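In this supplementary section we document a worked example of the pipeline. Step one takes a protein sequence of length 348 as its only input; no multiple sequence alignment statistics are reported here. Step two produces a three-dimensional model, which step three serialises into C-alpha cells for compact storage. The input and output of this example are shown verbatim.
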Amino acid sequence: MSNQHQQPPLKCFSFTASRNRCLKLSFSGAGLRPTTADIGDGTRVHCWIPKTPNPTRKNLVLIHGFGANAMWHFCDAVRYLAARFNVYVPDLLFFGKSFTTRPDRSETFQARCLMAAMEANGVEKMGVVGLSYGGFVAYSMAVQFPAAVEKVVLCCAGVCLEERDLGNGLFVVNTVDEAAALLMPATAEKLKELLKYTFVKFPRTIPTFLLEDFIDEMCVHNVEDKKKMLFALVEGRKFSELPKISQPTLIVWGDKDQVFPLELAHRLKRHLGEIAELTLIKNTGHGFIFEKPKEFNRRVTTFLSKPQSSPPPPPPIAKGWLNCLLSEPQPSPPPPPPPSAKAADGSR
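The serialised model returned by step three reads:
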C-alpha cells in the first residue's frame, strides 16, 4: 500500500518548505499557473501551465527526474524558457501532487499519463525535455506518440542502459536496491553521498539540519512506489530491445557525470544515428542544469528554435487486397437489354 499520506513530524520552520513557496511565486512570475488534470482511474497529474498560451510559440514540456518536485529541477530554466515557449512543467506520478491508484510503475505508463494531461490542457503538438529519469519518460512519449512529439531533448538520461550494466561496474552502485538507497536518501550522510556524485563541485559544509530538513520534505513520501519505478525501469532491460525514435533529438550530458556515465551518451548517439546531436557541458556532472544553467538554456533553446526539416514522404502503401481490387481493371458494364417487342411495335 502507498505511503502517500504519511507525514513527517511537525516542525516550527522548514527551509525546504519555504523554498518551495518561493519557487511557486517564481513560477507564477514566469507566467505559469498550477492545475491538476484528473485523467481517470484514480490518476491525477499536477502541472504548471501557461496562464495565457501564445499561439505563435511552440509548446514545450519539461519532465523532471528523481529527487524533489518539478519546480526544484527547473527553477533555473523556467523563466528563460517560458519567455520563448509555451512551457508545461508536470509532476511525475508520486512526485509533488501527482498520484495514481493504478499498479503500473513503468516509464511507459508515466508517458501515457503525461500525454493524457497534455491533451486535457489542449496541447496537441510539443517538444519534450527529459531530465535523468524524466528522459526515460520523454523517450517513451516519443515512441508512443510520434505524431504529437516533434522534438526531443534528453538530459543525462541513460535510456540505453541494460540491467547487466549494474553488475559490470558501469555505475557507482551494483544493484537496484543500492540505487534506490542513493536516490531516495534516508540520512544526511546518504544525501551528502548523492550530492557528491551529482555535482563536480558542491558545498561540503552543508549543515546536517538542512539536509535532514530536505529529506523530511522531499524524500519520505511514496518511497515504496518510487522503488517500484526503479525496478520497473531496470529489471530485464536490454539495449537490443530499445526502439528507435524518429524525431530530431538533442542529447545533453555533463562530461563528468558519475550517475549516468558518459558511455551511455555515446551509446545513445550511436543508436539514434544522424537524427541525434550530442553536446557535452564541460566540467559538470549529472546536475549540470544547476551547475551551468545559462549554458543549458542556451543550447536547448538553440536546438528547439531550429526550423524543422520537412518530413520524408510517406512510404508507398503495400498493395493489399483492397489496393489490388482498386487497381485491377474493372469489367465493362453489360450492354443494355434489347428493346422489348412491345416497345419495338410502338416505335413504328
